[in-house]
Amino acid sequence: MDxxxxxxxxxxxxxxxxxxxxxxxxEECGWDKSSAEQTLWRKQFPDMKLHDIRMQIxxxxxxxxxxxxxxxxxxxxxxxxxxxxxxxxxxxxxxWHYRDMW
Length: 102
What we know:
This protein is α+β, with helices and mostly antiparallel strands. It has a single domain (3-100), classed as Alpha-Beta Plaits. The protein has two helices and six strands; from the N terminus they run E-H-E-E-H-E-E-E. It has helices spanning 16-28, 50-68; strands at 3-10, 32-33, 40-45, 72-79, 85-92, 95-100. Helix 1 (16-28) runs antiparallel to helix 2 (50-68). The radius of gyration is 13 Å and the shape is globular. The model has no long low-confidence stretch (mean pLDDT 93).
């Protein structure tokens, strides 16, 4: 699959420094932030299977949150023309936990 991914993020109760750290990590991973929408990002994934793209999205978001010391975030995304997905991630003592929001 060769496609673009669109991601919408919500970082509740996050300070400016943490948010900037999260965004900087995403930019370093090749994500482009929309100039019009503060929480909208996109990235192209050439020649990857849908499952691998989804796993990379989750990895990038969790790593950004870990680096920025963010304990809770919401991510909604769509890969190409596939069904959109939405998850709530929280970190606990035993690692990341998620709940599907749709």
